[in-house]
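W.,

You were right to be curious about this one. When I first looked at the sequence I had no strong expectations either way, so I just let the prediction run and decided to look at it fresh. Below is the sequence, 216 residues in total, followed by the output.
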Amino acid sequence: MTETIRIMIADDHPIFRFGMRTLIDATSDMSVVGEAATGEEAIALADTCVPDLLLMDIVMPGLSGIEATAHIHERHPQMVIFIVSMLDDESVFEAMRAGARGYILKGTAPAEMLAAIRAAASGEAIFSARIAERLTAYFVKPSVQPTREVLAFPELTTREREILVLLARGFTNTNIADRLALSPKTVRNYISEIFTKLQVADRSQAIVRARDAGID
């Protein structure tokens, strides 16, 4: 990436914020543009500095990081909100529903953390290995019910609903292409159209929409 990634940090632990700022400021393609210690501060500061990417803790005084994420996502839907937390429980699903585009655990190696930030800023949905395992266990189910698909998303075509179901079951683009005898480019085009129609930013949010609609 040629442009500097403008990053805001929201965490109630000053030592963690200092460590992240030190790590980020040592790079040539990122800079910290603001710090917040509470959910309320995060909302106000996000409005002021409008970063490219917001590193958000979950447990903070006052509003939680998840509540703050929902507020900020509503005001700034293009802002990448990336959860950095000690929690590896159901909070990941709540964070995704609130609008977070990634979730990584504190204690992640510095090089991996920086790589995750760059990937998230580029539009990828990034998760720590333990979080990814939890997501896989939650989303991968043996069957779907076609009637639910039709009722849940009438705006989708039959093929788009079929691909959404496969996404919800944990299939990769390559898996979907092989299963449906489509080219990888065609699958990417279908998925892009699904994102547009469902008004979601990435596949993780699309999966949450599918699960919330009852597609198992």
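Here's what jumped out at me. Residues 184-198 form the longest helix (15 residues). And, maybe more interesting for your project: The domain at 140-212 is CATH 1.10.10.10 (Arc Repressor Mutant, subunit A).

Coffee later to discuss?

I.
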